[in-house]
Design goal:
Distance between the termini: 83 Å
Structural class: alpha+beta
CATH architecture of the largest domain: Orthogonal Bundle
CATH class of the largest domain: Mainly Alpha
Number of helices: 10
CATH superfamily of the largest domain: Winged helix-like DNA-binding domain superfamily/Winged helix DNA-binding domain
Strand order of the largest sheet: 3-2-1-4
Number of strands: 4
Helix content: 55-70%
Number of domains: 3
Length: 221
């Protein structure tokens, strides 16, 4: 909307609609800028105010920065995000890299971004709701850009016995669906499934041995 960067007097400030938070700023009787209410208030604009060209450029920068902030807040309002996810989202919208850096830091300071807490919550959710093993969860967190130190901290409380018990529960549920098949097929299917779920090879081997003995006992009855 900007057509004249020479500045002038603000002759009118018009709200776009009753529900909108955006305003049209008229200079010398002509609409020149469309800005958010937050920018209007922070910049202290008012009718009759003399504005120089440098001030208009400042308003444009403030408006763009506010757009980045609003986009970030909308994105973060749906569910928790990682720092990398927010950066990627804002980058796809072609915002200035400098503004993105500032907003990311602002979101961290205000508690909207917290990769450390995100990792802890992710581990709990993926184990309780999906029954995923540590290897898969670690890989998911790496893909989301979580730092190794936060990943290690988030999984540090998971004991090997707990991991084995979870893997056994997953395997037994799977076994009940295919127990009528030859052991060679059962072994392959359950082994692949447990590895896909992210359980360590050593634990998978132990569980397959246990299920093999169970399968043999059932076959003898």
């Amino acid at each position: 909307m900007v057509t004249d960067m020479n500045g002038g007097m603000i002759t009118r400030i018009e709200r776009k609609s009753a529900l909108s938070k955006r305003y049209l700023i008229y200079f010398n009787g002509e609409p020149l800028l469309s800005i958010h209410e937050d920018v209007l208030v922070k910049q202290g604009l008012y009718k009759g105010m003399e504005v120089e060209a440098a001030k208009i450029r400042e308003l444009l920068r403030a408006e763009e920065f506010n757009q980045v902030r609003m986009a970030a807040l909308r994105y973060l309002s749906y569910r928790p995000r990682t720092t990398q996810e927010l950066r990627q989202y804002l980058t796809k919208k072609d915002f200035s890299a400098g503004y993105i850096d500032q907003i990311v830091e602002e979101m961290k300071e205000q508690g909207y971004l917290n990769d450390q807490q995100y990792a802890k919550d992710w581990v709990e959710e993926r184990r309780n709701r999906k029954s995923y093993g540590i290897n898969r969860i670690k890989n998911e967190l790496r893909q989301k850009g979580i730092a190794s130190q936060w990943i290690d901290e988030a999984i540090s409380h998971v004991e090997e016995n707990e991991e084995r018990q979870l893997a056994l529960e997953v395997a037994k549920r799977r076994y009940l669906r295919i127990c009528h098949e030859p052991w060679s097929k059962i072994e392959r299917k359950i082994g692949q499934f447990l590895l896909y779920r992210g359980f360590p090879m050593g634990i998978v081997y132990e569980i397959l041995q246990e299920l093999k003995w169970q399968h043999q006992r059932e076959g003898e009855k």
